[in-house]
Amino acid sequence: MQTGGDSLLVTFDSIDGAIRCAVRIQQQVPVLDGEQSADRTIRFRIGINIGDAIADGTDLHGDAVKVAARLQVECRPGDICVTRSVRDHVHGRLDLTFEALGTLNLRNISRPVEAFMVKTGESAGVSGSKGSDTPQLPDRPSVAVLPFKT
Predict the structure, then answer these.
(1) Burial letters for 74-95: b for 16+ Cβ neighbours within 10 Å, e otherwise?
(2) pLDDT category, 82, cuts 50, 70, 90?
(3) Are 86 and 59 contacting, i.e. CB atoms less than 8 angstroms apart?
(4) Are 108 and 66 in contact (CB under 8 A)?
(5) Contacts of 88 by beta carbon, 8 Å cutoff, 6+ apart
(6) What sign does the CA torsion over 86, 88, 92, 95 have?
(7) Whether pLDDT at 141 is above 60
(8) Label partner for 89 (CA 20 to 30 A): which of 1, 81, 98, 115?
(9) Going along 11-150, which residue ranges are E strands?
(10) Mean pLDDT, to the nearest integer, of 85-103?
(11) Mean pLDDT throughout 77-99?
């Protein structure tokens, strides 16, 4: 994980895990906001790409990282934008709907990138693959405390 300013860059061992995490974040943040006024709420924009992230100390570099960072700029707050390769990897395995955004010319990226928005509404199943027995999130906020690996 890398932080910079008001952003986080997180790497995952699987693209399925990255998508599941992003969808759950986007679904749970409004729940956690509760009755807060609009000026007191927070919304994230998430960009997801697949590829190599090259570690240089605590920094991560590479085209995959740059594309993910540029994709999140294309999102509205609360959205998740992914590349075609991400969509193609999880399409049919995760019960999600993708909306085509078309081919985007992203800043400082030499080639056009075909992008999709992940639909995160109630119909966007984050329970895992179709037919999974994984429980759905509760209607009320919950907290999980997980140890950090050192």
Answers:
(1) bbeebbbbbbbbbbebbeeebb
(2) very high
(3) no
(4) yes
(5) none
(6) positive
(7) no
(8) 1
(9) 46-48, 54-56, 59-61, 80-83, 98-104, 113-118
(10) 91
(11) 91
Neighbour-count burial of 23, counting CB atoms closer than 10 A to its CB (0-12 exposed, 13-18 middle, 19+ buried):
buried
Largest CA distance in the chain: 45
Extract the tokens encoding 93: 């395995």
In 32-94 the beta strands, taken as DSSP E runs, fall at 46-48, 54-56, 59-61, 80-83
Q: Calculate mean pLDDT across residues 15-41.
A: 89
Domain definitions of the chain by residue range? 2-118
> Quick one: how far is CA 20 from the chain centroid?
8
Instruction: Write b or e for each residue in 109-144: b if 16 or more Cβ atoms lie within 10 A of its Cβ, otherwise e.
Output: eeeebebbbbebeeebbbeeeeeeeeeeeeeeeeee
Mean pLDDT check: name the lowest of 1-10, 60-69, 107-116: 1-10
| CATH fold of 2-118 | Alpha-Beta Plaits (3.30.70)
Burial class (CB in 10 A: 0-12, 13-18, 19+), 103: exposed
